[in-house]
Amino acid sequence: MRLTPGDGRDVDLDRVDLFDLDLYTSGDPHPVWDVMRAKAPLHHQVLPDGREFWSVTRYDDVCRVLGDHREFTSERGTVVTHLGVDDPAAGVLMTSTDPPRHTEVRRPLGSKLTARAVKSWEDRIRGTIVRFLEPALDGGTFDLAERALLLPAMVTGPLLGIPEKDWEELVQLTAMVTAPSDPHFKTGSEAATLAISHHELVTYVKEWVKRRRATGDEDESLLHHLMSVRPAGEPLTDEEIALDGYSILLGANVTTPHTVSGTVHALIERPEQFRKAQADPSLIPNLVEEGLRWTSAACNFMRYAVSDVEIAGGTIPAGGAAVAWIGSANRDESQFTDPHTFDITRSGANRQVAFGFGAHYCIGAPLARMTLRIFFEELLQRFESLELDGEPQHLRSYFIAGMTHLPIVAKKRMTP
Predict the structure, then answer these.
(1) Checking CA distances to 364, which of 103, 135, 158, 297 falls within 20 to 30 Å?
(2) Would strands 383-388 and 407-412 be described as parallel, antiparallel, or unpaired?
(3) Cα(411)–Cα(384) distance, rounded to whole angstroms?
(4) Report field, pTM of the whole predicted structure over 0.85
(5) Which residues pair with residue 410 across a beta bridge?
């Protein structure tokens, strides 16, 4: 999707279709969300097949939907690609579970992913990113978006306990889950793509667990750690471990690549921001926060109203699907001055909700932040300037805002 919006004066909310994939592939949803925040902060849409959902677009309303599980449950599904079909893993899959079970599974995993815990990975991650950037040093065309799809696996594969030989396959499968209509990942119909990717990912984790149980091998990986988690005092079954492992693989792979490519694209469009960050490396953590806000790679999450809920001047009926548009919340004028301006000196950029909000706040946020910080430290140190070498190609998805192609040419920075 376009991250720098055009003119929204011609937006007709009566004709807006938030499930129109063209809106995200070649269109411009930000002017639509601008008008929705101003005129229809609670927007109801009925799809041609009868499925319906209610959208919230203001920052405070998005935080309420994502943050209060007593009003809005995760236990029927949390992503819009599953709208109208209850998640069969509800109450088991970590992302489709409410507290207290969600907390009981998440807490021991989260202890392995605190900012202090992941600090020990910094040198290894830096080495990985240096290797990732090396091909761009020759001055040829470097397709950042295409190559960045593998970057999270390069960083988190060892942390998860996934061997390198499996990284590309798992990256492809996780992309199929989140963008089942994109021609780069689609296999048959959208439904078939989702079914195949879900089955293959769950089967992969099941087989991983089966091998570990057979060999008795132990390590410090997150997947192995899942085998020792005991919510309510009971160990997880192999099926539960497989589903939670599937959730962790998705979280690890699907957003960071698009934050990288979208932020780099913003810097290419605004070379003064690139130069500002290069001149003052202390701005890089703020660049990361602004990049997260600007790209909002996971641009929405879904919940279901537990009972009738009054919100944003209207009512979501009991059982109604509520879609919280993170991409809109992160451009809310009430929270961010000049929200459609990319500004790495912005104050308060860390209020962004790109990692979600509430109990389901991204468990890997400290690792993602550190990875992004190191990426931009190395990028700015190695390259004098960046230029586009072709048109960006946007991901065909209404769930993940990202790119499949971003061809760039980087000019190597000359050391003094």
Answers:
(1) 135
(2) antiparallel
(3) 5
(4) yes
(5) 386
Q: Give the position of tokens 């192609």.
A: 405
Instruction: Write the burial class of residue 54 (CB in 10 Å: 0-12 exposed, 13-18 middle, 19+ buried).
Output: buried
CA atoms of 260 and 269, how far apart (whole Å) = 14
Average pLDDT, the chain: 91
Q: How far is CA 377 from the centre of its chain?
A: 21
How would you classify the pairing of strands 52-56 and 321-325?
parallel
323, HSE (Cβ side, Cα atoms, 13 Å): 26
Polymer length of the chain = 416
- Give the whole-angstrom CA distance, residue 278 versus residue 359: 36
> Which of 157, 85, 133, 188 is CA-nearest to residue 377?
133
| Helix H or strand E segment including 97 | none
Give how far the C-alpha of residue 199 lies from the chain's centroid of Cα atoms, to the nearest Å.
Answer: 21
Place of tokens 């048109």: 391
pLDDT tens digits for range 124-176: 999 999 999 999 998 899 999 999 999 999 998 888 889 999 999 999 999 99
- Identify the CA nearest to 381 among candidates 352, 414, 340, 354: 414
Place of tokens 């230029």: 387
In angstroms, how far is the first alpha carbon of the chain from the final one?
39
Rounded CA gap, 127 and 124, in Å? Answer: 5
122 vs 376: CA distance, rounded Å: 14
Tokens 């790209």, located at residue: 295
SS3 content of the chain, % helix, strand, coil (to 5): 50, 10, 35
Question: Which residue shows structure tokens 């899942």?
Answer: 226
The CATH code that applies to domain 21-39+76-292+341-412 is 1.10.630.10
Contact 57, 320 (CB under 8 A): no
Amino acid at 245: G
